[in-house]
Amino acid sequence: MSTVLVTGGAGFIGSHLADRLLAEGHRVISVDDLTTGRIANLAEARGYGKEFTFFNMDVRAEGLLPLFERHRPEVIFHLAAQSGVRPSLGDPARDASINIMGTINVLECATKVEARKVIYAASGGTIYGEPRRLPAKESTAQASHPMSPYGISKKVVLDYLGFYQRYRGLEYTACALGNVYGPRQDPHGEAGVIAIFAQRMLANEPVTIFGDGNQTRDYVFVDDVVHAFVQSFERGSGKLVNIGTGLEASVNHLFRLLADITGYDKEPDHGPLPPGELRRNALDISSASNAIAWKPWTHLEDGLAETVAFLKGV
Q1: Cα–Cα distance list, 35 to 11, 13, 92, 106, 211 (Å)
Q2: Where does the chain have alpha helices with state H?
Q3: d(C-alpha 76, C-alpha 131), whole Å
Q4: DSSP character for 141?
């Protein structure tokens, strides 16, 4: 099989992706600066011995090119990012440095070693801004207005991907991810609401809902997302593809489902809604079946149960 490189490879999604690629016989090079990624996430991948190599490195580093030249990956899965809306509001320059300049560094390295393709983790939760119609279609991305520097940086990269395909011959598929959840998501720091709620409920601690709780997101399970990345290996060239469920789930609904699963009997606290937060979001996934032969299969209740089971074992 081929050599592939995964940036953000020690992260929540990246580590699951590395496991899947290794299981399918690929040689995997994993790059992560461990700002949010964790070595513990790589336990399964490291069991593959010489087929898996990990480098602790920032995607902005000059050392990235020698790494590419040594291993010459055929396909790059670019997941490394500053991935929080709130940190991007506080420090837009750092967000742009990692998400735009870091990505350009990856694309330059990929072109110099004549890699075939980059598969990019775009943000379906932010690039569309506050959508006029739901579920949001990929065709609306060009005219959208993201509400945070994070959303802006993730949207800008789509134009760079188009440039590198047209003028440097580097194929790409951009997977616009909904709100991804599942095992290995860190419930500390800038984490998904599902991991935070579940961990606090399991510890019988207070849970805070920001705003009225009626805000909605499209929650997609990590295994489904990994499958979309793998399906993009030979498909979807030059396309932005939504990866979600097409369904809206409110924060209040999530709270109730998780409370049932964990046996939590407290009422939630409420706090003010942070700036930059969307009111509603869901992704139109109708093009994914044609573009990359993909559709989600995990129901929210099943994914939540698996996430809670993982957190119980941590």
Answers
A1: 9, 14, 17, 18, 29
A2: 12-23, 43-46, 64-71, 85-90, 92-96, 102-112, 149-168, 193-202, 222-231, 251-262, 288-292, 300-313
A3: 30
A4: S
Rounded Cα distance, 177 and 50, in Å: 31
What type of residue sits at position 211?
A: G
Both structure tokens of 110: 């990929």
Question: φ, ψ for residue 219 (rounded to 5)?
Answer: -95, 120
User: Residue 241 phi/psi, 5° resolution?
Assistant: -125, 120
Q: Which of 48, 120, 128, 150 is catalytic?
A: 150
Q: Which two tokens stand for residue 184?
A: 């290995």
Query: Residue 188's pLDDT is what?
Result: 74
Q: Residue holding tokens 């983790």? A: 121
Query: Which token pair is 98?
Result: 């990692």
- Residue 141 φ/ψ, nearest 5 degrees: -65, -40
Of 1, 2, 35, 32, the residue nearest 15 (C-alpha): 32
Is 181 considered catalytic here? no
Grouped pLDDT means (10 residues each) for the chain, 314 residues: 96 98 98 96 98 98 98 98 93 98 98 98 96 96 96 98 98 98 84 91 97 96 98 98 97 98 97 87 98 98 98 86
Distance CA 13, CA 11 (A): 6
